[in-house]
Amino acid sequence: GVRVGASMGGRRDELADLGRDFDHMTERLGHLVEGQKRLLHDVSHEMRSPLARLHAAVDLARQQPARSDDWLLRIERESERMSQLVGELLTLSRLEAGIADATESVDMAELLADIVEDARFEANSRHIRIEYCLGAMADIRANVDLLHRAIENVVRNAIRYSPDGGTVRIMAGKTGNTFQIRVEDQGPRVDTHELELIFQPFCCGSSSRPGDGHGLGLAIARRVMQTMKGRIRATRGGNGGLVVDFELPA
Questions:
Q1: What pLDDT does 94 receive?
Q2: Does the pLDDT at position 209 exceed 60?
Q3: Nearest CA to 157 among 132, 133, 185, 181?
Q4: Three-class SS of the chain
Q5: Which of 21, 23, 109, 145 is most buried by a 10 A CB count?
Q6: Residues 75, 57: contact at Cβ < 8 Å?
Q7: Angle 47-152-246 (CA atoms, 0-180°, nearest 5)?
Q8: What is the pLDDT of residues 149-165, one digit of tens each?
Q9: ∠ at Cα 160 (158, 164), nearest 5°?
């Protein structure tokens, strides 16, 4: 909480520079500490609900042994939910620690074709159309599993928030020295002030619904882009929905 800049008055020497650097350092440390506290609180909150449902299912199985199969299914579902959350947290932790594992040359045409195929299969049950527009392809130096997960997280979000019978557009191609990917959905309009917040862990936005996930997908996508010296950003679509753009060094 200590800041020294104000006590420097109008000085313009090395001590004033040192004071500004000190204030900048303490400001960053403060943000890091607050971020860690918030993450710990959010993890505890996310874990509490499935754990409570697990305990309730165990109690019900004891009280109603004739329906034990029903309660076992509930226990299995909650266990899978917790396992998924822990997996996402481990991935996020490794990325924030700068551990991106080995990289290789990734054929973007092949990787995107796999993602689009999976997206069409998932979207089919709600009659959501996946439009895929392919431009000039390129090879990208990256960890293929992390890159696949980052793009897939965004595409699955687009499907999740799009209305039944809607359309999700995926466009990709090389422009100059960058490889660009754009994912557009027809989901609820996102408030302007949330366009940056949705990339924070456990932030799902005001349009999210119960069961929409843990709010880690976009956070992981951003960390993956940072390890690849690329970037990801979100904007509001012209007719509603969300537009997410990736830029990768080609």
A1: 73
A2: no
A3: 185
A4: CCCCHHHHCCCCCHHHHHHHHHHHHHHHHHHHHHHHHHHHHHHHHHHHHHHHHHHHHHHHHHHCHHHHHHHHHHHHHHHHHHHHHHHHHHHHHHHHCCCCCCCEEEEHHHHHHHHHHHHHHHHHHHCCEEEEEECCCCEEEECHHHHHHHHHHHHHHHHHHCCCCCEEEEEEEEECCEEEEEEECCCCCCCCCHHHHCCCCCCCCCCCCCCCCCCCHHHHHHHHHHHCCCEEEEEECECECEEEEEEEEC
A5: 23
A6: yes
A7: 115
A8: 899 999 999 999 999 99
A9: 100
Q: Is 9 exposed, middle or buried (0-12, 13-18, 19+ CB in 10 A)?
A: exposed
Calculate mean pLDDT across residues 209-218: 62
> What is residue 210's predicted lDDT score, i.e. its pLDDT?
45
Residue in the structure block whose two tokens are 């997996």: 87
Determine whether 45 is an active site residue: yes
Dihedral sign (CA 157, 168, 221, 231): negative
**Is residue 239 predicted with pLDDT exceeding 80?**
no
Catalytic residue among 24, 31, 45, 55: 45
Give, in order, the Cα–Cα distances in Å from 186 to each of 64, 131, 191: 45, 12, 14
d(CA 168, CA 119): 9
